[in-house]
């Protein structure tokens, strides 16, 4: 599959121009009466789809931009005009318009940087989990790993990606396979006990989003190359159980997602990977829904995750409004909601040993107030929190950039490198 850039360069420049030309062609070659019907139908289909997705099915916890709906509407219009015209060429032109609209939506979230990432989402350096060889843990002196561990000759230059299902032994949570990044140092014999970063995607989404859209491998390999092959082991866990599911990162009748992330995932990692045994070597991070979900277990179980990174996080789990969240998400159980609500948890206790970063894109109008709200509450409860605003919106360009920016701090706090 060619590695054609979709977010910059020739494609996002020429595709809209070609699509506009194609849309005009479709309009010119369709009779007036069908055009009117197609316009009305496209508007109705788009409005209905938006209502079902956001108000009925709750597919998107965050508000979509008006231009996203416009792109959907234009794509529907092109398809209807092609059907009305009944021309083979019209179908091809409509496909061009639809492709341009799809890439416009893609650009809103920076989800697929290249054509290859759409059809070949997985890293070329994958290894089957069964082929990850066990090795004894190196006996090292106390202190940052970079100062106490010497890389052996022949250490791989890059890490490897593997995947496996982490069972919900305690929670019963039905999770999709986790994506796991193992840095070069993990393939040494003996190997150092590396810190762990549990990473979460948004909703809708899946664990491999961090590979496809989040630039995870490049970010981690770049850090490892500067630190003798050392970097955290990254476990991109499934925090939702499905692309469109929203378990609110809580233990509810929907699913026991909180127990899965705070009990099942850490237990499996301790059993199957050579990683840090002490909590100081563990962190949890996520973007959008995953950003909120990173903060929740960090506050509910600070002895498991004393470090967190919440990217574009909200202050509370939500299904759109408080009444619906409590009624549909928690069956009206206010105590269950409080156990999952960061603001309630922060009012109930202090967190002197917890530290984190809350980040947000400055153009994400809905998310900036939420990020500021949770940052203030964290600070009031004694959490050492850094609030980070970066240029951009609610998209993968922001999240991948923030992870790269914050990674040195995560590595220092988890014991990879010393203080600078």
UniProtKB/TrEMBL annotation:
Chain intervals for the UniProt region annotation (Disordered): 142-161
GO molecular-function terms, A-Z: hydrolase activity
Key words of the record: Hydrolase, Membrane, Transmembrane, Transmembrane helix
UniProt key word ATP-binding: no
Pfam annotation, one family: Esterase
Bilayer-crossing regions: 6-28, 35-60
Keyword Hydrolase: yes
UniProt xrefs under InterPro entries: AB_hydrolase_fold, Esterase-like, Mycobacterial_A85_antigen
Stated name of the protein: Alpha/beta hydrolase
Species of the source: Nocardia jiangsuensis
